[in-house]
From TrEMBL:
Cofactors required: pyridoxal 5'-phosphate
Source species of the chain: Pedobacter segetis
Gene3D superfamilies per record: Alanine racemase
Pfam families for the chain: Ala_racemase_N
Phylogenetic placement of the source organism: Bacteria, Pseudomonadati, Bacteroidota, Sphingobacteriia, Sphingobacteriales
Keyword line: Isomerase, Pyridoxal phosphate
SUPFAM superfamilies linked to this entry: PLP-binding barrel
Residue ranges annotated for the Alanine racemase N-terminal domain, each copy included: 9-225
InterPro entries in the cross-refs: Ala_racemase, Ala_racemase_N, PLP-binding_barrel
Keyword Isomerase set for record: yes
Name of the protein this chain belongs to: Alanine/ornithine racemase family PLP-dependent enzyme
CDD domains: PLPDE_III_AR_like_1 (cd06815)
Length: 356
């Protein structure tokens, strides 16, 4: 049976590197835990490391976080949907917001539950996902500043996630200027400028981060050690905190090209095969994992001589060529994974999750 393994020491090493960088630069930070899909076993490892602030996009995940870390601060990191607002107030201490009507509803629900709810107002800085347009920000702030039981604790932005727009000193300085404008006009202090995500970590390392940026929310760098500017591993960090282990359930020498009239496969695709493969044979291994668990494009075989062919809903087919490694049925094939690969597997109830 396939299983996903989290290596505790590798995770702890990445965490300690990030903690030092942030501490040295007087930056507060929280862990974006949505990758873990509310898995109690893995969340407990973050608590053991000392994580006291969790960021997530799913109410059920926040509910689990409150179970394993009742004193931790929970942050809901997308604009809330109307139907989720009672749960947002119940399970999220902070939420990201961009809409006046939504904040009004959060305010009313916070009054109802006798809570003070903190919000971060997200600003559009070029990636065209969530965010108030900068020219409307002062009017927007004026609308929401006096909302009952709402405490505006920060301004933030999100870059890279939709259109791949990278953070820069200029964009982050502009974010800092919005803070100064609001503080001057409304005679208030805004504690957080949440301009940092995993993609911003390289600017911090290179000492190119504007001093006003004092809050980060980090997931991918923690779990994968990835520099999102270069798509390379950050020096000293681990890129294999997670590893997938699968079992060979069939292994035969077969033609490299299928025969018969070709239509669409289960994914609605018609695979193509290079002309040079016609008439050739190789050993094909079938593994006990499929599209229901993970898109194969996010899997990286540890054996560089393996080629991923295709997946159906519950099986993954590999080309092990002439099987020089001597694989047989029952053997284990392991993979490193990209971010979306881990996310898919974490969301699958059919793949066990274990610790090392």
């Amino acid at each position: 049976m396939a299983y996903l393994k989290l290596y505790k020491e590798k995770l702890a090493h990445n965490y300690s590197m990030l903690e030092k960088w942030f501490t040295d630069n007087d930056v507060e930070w929280g862990v974006v835990s949505k990758l873990l899909c509310g898995n109690q076993l893995y969340l407990q490892e973050l608590v053991k490391l000392g994580v006291t602030e969790f960021h997530d996009t799913r109410i059920s995940n926040l509910k689990m976080i409150k179970k394993v870390a009742p004193k931790a601060q929970t942050v809901y990191i997308k604009p809330p949907a109307k139907r989720t607002i009672p749960s947002i107030i119940k399970y999220a201490d902070v939420s990201f917001n961009t809409d006046y009507t939504t904040i009004k509803m959060l305010s009313a629900e916070a009054v109802k539950q006798n809570k003070t709810h903190k919000i971060i107002i997200m600003i559009e800085m070029g990636d065209l996902r969530e965010g108030v347009v900068g020219e409307n920000l002062l009017d927007f702030y004026d609308q929401v500043i006096h909302s009952p039981n709402i405490n505006i604790v920060g301004l933030g932005t999100n870059l890279n996630c939709l259109n791949g727009i990278l953070p820069s000193q200029d964009k982050l300085i502009q974010l800092s200027l919005y803070k100064q404008l609001i503080e001057a006009k409304f005679n208030i202090k805004i504690p957080w400028i949440s301009g940092g995500t995993s993609v911003t970590v390289p600017l911090l390392i290179k000492e190119q981060l504007p001093k006003q940026i004092n809050h980060f929310r980090v997931g991918e760098v923690l779990f994968f050690g990835l520099d999102l500017f270069t798509n390379q591993t950050i020096v000293g960090m681990n890129n294999d905190v997670f590893r997938l282990y699968t079992e060979i359930i069939e292994l035969y020498e077969k033609p490299k090209v299928p025969s018969g009239d070709q239509g669409f496969n289960v994914a609605g695709e018609t695979p193509n095969y290079p002309k040079e493969d016609y008439g050739k044979h190789s050993y094909r291994a079938i593994l006990d994992i499929g599209l229901l668990d993970c898109n194969p494009q996010y899997l990286i075989p540890d054996d560089e001589n393996i080629t991923i062919i295709e997946a159906s809903s519950d099986m993954l087919v590999l080309d092990v060529h002439q099987n020089d490694a001597g694989y047989k049925v029952g053997d284990t094939i392991s993979f490193k994974l990209k971010y979306m690969g881990v996310l898919g597997i974490m969301n699958s109830d059919y793949v066990d999750k274990v610790l090392e």
